[in-house]
Amino acid sequence: MVFSQPLTFSPSKILEKSIEPDYYSTEYIFISNNTDSPLTVNFNLFSADVPSEWSATGCTNTFCYIKLPDDGTFGMLEPDGQGYMSINLAANGTEGTGEVSFIISVEEIPEFSDTLLFIYSSQNNTDTIQQSWAQINFSQQVIHIFLDDASVGSRIRMYNLSGEIVLNAPLEKITSFSLTSFTRGIYFVAVRREDGKELVQKILVV
Fold first, then answer.
1. What is the pLDDT of residues 132-143, one digit of tens each?
2. Is residue 166 pLDDT above 70, yes or no?
3. C-beta of residue 158 within 8 angstroms of C-beta of residue 191
């Protein structure tokens, strides 16, 4: 069976990223349905070759995982609809290189498969600015929390403008939460350590 390329990838199917050893990185590859029909797009982890000292998790537009996922779905993408995959990575103060790749498949076109590849390189730079003990990154309706030390027992609490807690959970070194089911509006995200240190950031869910 001959078929045209049903999916397009942005910025490309191969993403290369150089990061500082103490820098937390979240990189996205967007996948668009290039046909006139809805497509159910899935993925399987093909390989994950990264240094053992590194921490890595993954997200799609439908779910965030506490580690690199073995498989999952982007759901059904309508014509011109778009999904994404992100890799959230911390080199944890080490230098090295790593690759993570996924096989992308389409249920409606069993003959089709393609590959997403994330390539990372971590090298020391003496001009690197010391990072905060925690970072909050909110993008594409997903909140990513990066900690420099997960052993001190940190939690996330998220409040709406009425002061109600809408999210309360412990944190790993890298933790991600999808907020696609949350009501549109302004929220306050608080990351707090057992020793009392707290980082607060305001976000807008749309």
1. 688 898 988 999
2. yes
3. no
Query: Is residue 173, in this structure, part of any structural domain at all?
Result: yes
Q: How confident is the model at residue 110 (pLDDT cuts 50, 70, 90)?
A: very high
15 and 86, same structural domain? yes
The C-alpha atoms of residue 164 and residue 162 are separated, in whole angstroms, by 6
Distance of alpha carbon 192 from alpha carbon 198, whole angstroms: 4
pLDDT at 128: 39
User: Of 77, 98, 74, which is closest to residue 86 (Cα–Cα)?
Assistant: 74
Shared domain check, 111 and 18: yes
Domain total of the chain: 2
> What are residue 115's DSSP bridge partners?
103
Tokens read off for 65? 């995982």
Q: Are 39 and 109 in contact (CB under 8 A)?
A: yes
